[in-house]
Amino acid sequence: MKTFVKADPWKIIQETFHPSQQLVAESLFSIGNGRMGQRGNFEETYSGPSLQGHYIGGVYYPDKTKVGWWKNGYPEYFAKVLNAPSWIQICWSVEGEEVDLYRAKAVSAFYRELNMREGYLKRSCVITLRNGKQLQIDSLRFCSMTHHEAGVIQYAITPLNFSGQIQLRLPVDAHVQNADANYQEKFWEHIHSSTSHAHAFVVARTKKSNFTVSTGIHARILLDNIPLPISFQGIAAEKYAALEASVEVEQGKTYVIEKYAAVLSSLNHPPSCILQATQQQLANFVQLGFHQLLAEQKNYWAAKWQMMDVQIDGDVKAQQGIRFNIFQLHQTYTGDDERLNIGPKGFTGEKYGGATYWDTEAYCLPFYLATAGQQVARNLLLYRYRHLQKAIENAAKLGFGKGAALYPMVTMNGEECHNEWEITFEEIHRNGAIAYAIWNYINYTGDEAYLIDYGLEVLIAIARFWAQRVNWSEPKQQYVILGVTGPNEYENNVNNNWYTNYIACWCLEYAHTAIEYVKQKAPEKFSAICAHIAFDETQEIPQWEHIRQHMYFPEEPSLGIFLQQEGYLDKEQLLVSELTPEDLPLYKHWSWDRILRSCFIKQADVLQGLYFFEDRFSIAQIRKNFYFYEPRTVHESSLSPCIHSILAAKIGDEQKAYELYLRTARLDLDDYNKDTADGCHITSMAGTWLSIVQGFAGMRVRRGALHFHPFIPRHWQAYEFRVQFRGNWLRVRVTRKEILIENHGNKPLEVFIFDQPHWIDEQHQVCVQRV
After folding, report:
1. pLDDT digits over 175-208, tens only?
2. Going by fewer Cβ within 10 Å, which terminus of the chain is more open, N or C?
3. pLDDT above 60 for 336
């Protein structure tokens, strides 16, 4: 796979500049801090292809739904994380010519680096303007991980062949627009703009959703580390404020611009005093200074990598891929605010609206459970618990009642806001992922109190939905679920999708199990829940059990497979190997009609179920289904390769497991699906970690204990990772000769390696020789 990214274990490096690479590069070089983030745009003016993007977590706009034919039940809007007021611009000109890499006469010695070890974006280049003036640019910027409302830029200009004057403009600009706005609307209203000395401030409010964002900047210019006595001229206009200055420069000397930003939102500050809070925060950041903020940034990331890092010996591209994915995940979600969640593009682009999907529960939760700790993972569950009433309202809009809940496919506030009918109405398997996340969390942490305090209400509401969504088929004398879209979105409006039917039954089963547990452990709490939601176990549980015992599951015994849905084998059965390179990706080259009639699969569907519930199926069953469905899967969803990699490892196909790992690890770096320009695939990045930890290392939690069944890809010499498990930190290292597990916790722990039990005392290790 051709890429302009240089292989490096700790950095994403670009050593050539070409406008055709810019959109992809902007995605790859994105930075953030869990509360805000931005694409890797240039600071100076750039008139070439670009998606200017700065985003603030939790700040969104309800963009009016745009469809050709309105159907009852459609959400009225599609929520979108807004392109927020921009503060990174450092616009400048020499003798009337704007510095613009796209229009320059030449750009040489170009170097751009995303330093993942230390958490910053760095760039340098030599630019020759059309007027012959030659300058060197060196920049470094980051969004502070220790001060979530701070952003900082250090931008150095060195004139190489002239002395003279440069004109500077340092703006805050709220005249921004989302590239995917349904009606080309601008979403910000002016509240305030002002300048004072070396400061500029813009306060803007979103239309409809009424979020207020206040952005302040401070600038100074240094020569030989000494501030120059520059007098900035202030410009304040509607949704815009800027500092301007003329600077006399000498050939060969380096002039350093420091630009500090404070970005505050009404999520955390009352609108009435947000400007004053911005002024105070900005003063604090300036007082700390660039070097102190950068030192804090480096120390923060050093500590985080101690917990999150996956080390691979002998495969630089694989190492770069896993670290890039971990880095972007943590830039997107740090877990300290339960109001926030993980958008599929994070802070790297606008596609999918920046909202929450079922990806969080199915893919991201295990990563945060093992690397960030119980409270961070708990916050992801609490996000859904807080939205339970909205999920009940979503179901009611589609005709369901009695407290049935349908969690949204896409949401910002718990309300469904996806506007494609085959997704909004039909991709109901998402409800199962919410329930599965509760089980997964409790199974990993042992935190049964969550089930009592929060989980049971959610499980009952989801079970009520499934009980109403099925119907009895007289010809089959079984329950069926009609008109659905499974995880494979290259099929719509199908009947009896195996995965949907299976997870529906599992939800009913788990809800019943949870009820019995809470009844026994907290009878008063159970009685209060029943009274609150009008739950009659004598009526509802027997219905659930009847559905479970009489559900229809399509299968083909002659092939030993579960059928993706009824009629799947009626399709012409082709393999991906029979397609030409010109066919791929299908969604860009085939009509939707042709895709829907084909047998080709976008992502794991039946195999998603076998991944979730692998202990309920034999290796032979998993193997037969894997080798039937994987050859028909085009992996055009970013969520696809990791599940297949894990299952390939499970059935012993180590080469296929590695092949699919590399695809998920480098999906964006190598632009596999030709869509990285839209932003990185953040939620699927957790699948890279899953592929190593659950796939190659075979880590599972069974009956409260960790199990490992590791292998090592032949390309690697060793790999290691750390996991947090029930209060203990473990270091796991797999080499060609042995498996080493160190217990860095304060209590002994039992682990299973190749199904054999081993006790590891605190601050001790166990070493098992590979057979």
Report:
1. 999 988 888 888 999 999 999 999 999 999 999 9
2. C
3. yes
Query: What average pLDDT does range 431-439 have in this prediction?
Result: 98
Contact 157, 137 (CB under 8 A): yes
Phi and psi angles of residue 62, each rounded to the nearest 5 degrees, phi first: -85, 85
312-321 residue pLDDT tens: 999 999 999 9
Report pLDDT for 419: 76
Strands in 454-600 per DSSP E: 471-473, 478-480, 555-556, 561-562
Tell me the per-residue pLDDT of 453-511, one tens digit each, with 9 for 90 and over: 999 999 999 999 999 999 999 999 999 999 999 999 999 999 999 999 999 999 999 99
φ, ψ (nearest 5 deg) of residue 461: -65, -40
C-alpha atoms less than 13 angstroms from C-alpha of 485 in its C-beta half-sphere: 19
Backbone phi, psi, residue 52, to 5°: -70, 125
The whole-chain average pLDDT of the chain stands at 96
Tokens of 532: 């609150």
Burial 371-410 (b: 16+ CB within 10 A, else e): bbbbebbbbbbbbbbebbebbbebbeebebebbbbbbbbb
- Contact residues for 276 (Cβ-Cβ < 8 A; gap 6+): none
Residue 605 near residue 487, CB atoms below 8 Å: yes
Where do we find the tokens 């890429």? 3
E-assigned strand segments in 144-269: 150-159, 164-173, 188-196, 199-206, 212-223, 226-227, 233-237, 240-249, 255-265
Over residues 525-552, the pLDDT tens digits come to 999 999 999 999 999 999 999 999 999 9
pLDDT band at residue 420, thresholds of 50, 70 and 90?
Answer: confident
Q: What three-state secondary structure class fits 174?
A: coil
Catalytic residue among 149, 361, 489, 630: 489
572 is catalytic: no
Tokens found for residue 27 = 């995605």
- Residues 175 and 189: their CA atoms lie apart, in Å, by 9
- 416/423 Cα distance (integer angstroms): 11
The tokens for 589 are: 């080259």
Contact 75, 62 (CB under 8 A): no
Look at the block and give the residue holding tokens 């400048």. Answer: 92
Q: What is the mean pLDDT of residues 271-297?
A: 98
Q: Which residues of 657-685 are buried (b: 16+ CB within 10 A; e: fewer)?
A: bbebbbbbbbbbbbbbbebbbbbbbbbbb
pLDDT at residue number 354: 64
Break the chain down into helix, strand, coil percent, rounded to 5. Answer: 35, 25, 40
pLDDT-above-70 percentage for the chain: 100
Helices and strands (H, E) in the chain, number of each type: 22, 34
Phi, psi of 277 (to 5 degrees): -65, -35
End-to-end CA gap in the chain: 35
- Sheet containing 36-38: order of strands: 31-32, 36-38, 54-56
Confidence at residue 183, expressed as pLDDT on a 0 to 100 scale: 81
CA-CA distance, 341 to 81, in Å (whole number)?
12
Q: Which of 266, 329, 268, 330 is nearest to 297 (CA)?
A: 330
As a whole number, mean pLDDT of residues 696-719 equals 97
- Give, in order, the Cα–Cα distances in Å from 197 to each of 171, 204, 243: 14, 21, 9
Alpha-carbon gap, residue 354 to 61, rounded angstroms = 11
Predicted confidence (pLDDT) per residue in 78-101, tens digit: 888 899 999 999 999 999 999 999
Beta-sheet pairing, 150-159 with 54-56: unpaired
Look at residues 538, 547, 531, 530 and name the one whose alpha carbon lies nearest to residue 465. Answer: 547
Q: What are phi and psi of 666, to 5 degrees?
A: -115, 25
715 three-class SS: coil
